[in-house]
Amino acid sequence: MVNRFILNEVSYFGPGARKELPGVVARLGYKKALVVTDKGLMKFGVAKMVLDVMDEAGIAYEIFDDVKPNPTVSNVKAGIEACKKAEADFIVAIGGGSSMDTAKGIGIVVNNPEFSDIVSLEGVADTKKKSLPIIALPTTAGTAAETTINYVIIDESRQAKMVCVDPNDIPAVAIIDAELMYSLPKSLTAATGMDAMTHAIEGLITKAAWEMSDMFELKAIEMIYKYLPMAVNDPTNPEGRNGMAVAQYIAGMAFSNVGLGVDHGMAHPLSALFDVPHGVACAMLLPTVMRFNVPAALDKYTDIAKAVGVWRDGMTKEEAADAACKAIEDLSAQVGTNKHLTDLGIKESDIAALAEQAIHDVCTPGNPREVTKEDIVNLYHKIL
Length: 384
What we know:
Elements: E1 10-13, H1 21-28, E2 32-36, H2 39-43, H3 46-57, E3 60-64, H4 73-86, E4 90-95, H5 97-111, E5 123-124, E6 134-138, E7 150-155, E8 160-165, E9 173-176, H6 186-205, H7 211-233, H8 238-258, H9 262-274, H10 278-293, H11 298-307, H12 317-335, H13 351-359, H14 373-382
Parallel strand pairs: 1-9, 2-3, 2-4, 4-6, 5-8, 6-9
Antiparallel strand pairs: 7-8
Helix pairs in contact: 4-5, 6-7, 6-8, 6-10, 7-8, 7-12, 9-10, 9-13, 10-12, 11-12, 13-14
């Protein structure tokens, strides 16, 4: 079996790392950027922290700030038109997964116009050219979209999330600056952080996992378990914020290359049908899905127990798995992401439609335990 691993060409880490941006632009010879972000980041001054650096360096840019929390086909098409109008030769993506996913869709279609309908990008698209170069600056510690070959767009006509997988979409440069995350609200810090934990755990136990991906995911689990409570409870603490910023990136390096599982398969329709933020959906599902997967991943769950410090000498594999699951349940409760579907206005009558999309989601086949639609219905019921 041949394993493939794709990573960014260059990445920068650390508080204040956005100040590397002018040197990057000069080195690569770019002329004008389309800045892809959202109105909230503009309003609260987070995007300005990057724009100030660009202004001081005299980097030309125009702003597209119409990114939606769950970006749509129409959203991406509007961004493509903005990019063409600006005559931009690169993209600066500032934000969470939504901004970076939108940027990826824009960049891919600008250089591969045969996919301009956007919906043809679903799954593994046969694009020929790399995306318009993207410099990605995440403002959340969760999605790791700055280092993945995946992006997710909602097709409004079907009310379905399209998971797009394309090596040509990975950002050319990732700049992980924890200072851009200091003002992230407590609830979003918790939800995006548990999304990162979901990435790390699903990436560890997915069918395609191997030694290299395991190395990254286990370190990510250890770091998220340590730093997420710190980032939630003391948001301007550089240690906690930078720890989470790096940890979620490490998780992304691996899951991007080996895939995920049914947690993400079930989370995607929650966003597509009910506009539930992706991090909230993943966090809500994680403890329940972990319990479901125990029989298929006992050895890996022992590794998780060791990574989070709850493994003890003499434990059986089953005891270690139970301890690992309880540790993640406790973490979720500690940071406040334990929720029920009914809290979000979702009713029992909605579960059939959710399960129908989840069983066909591109992430579901990677689950270590074979899963049926009935299993998925039962899992949704457990968090109803």
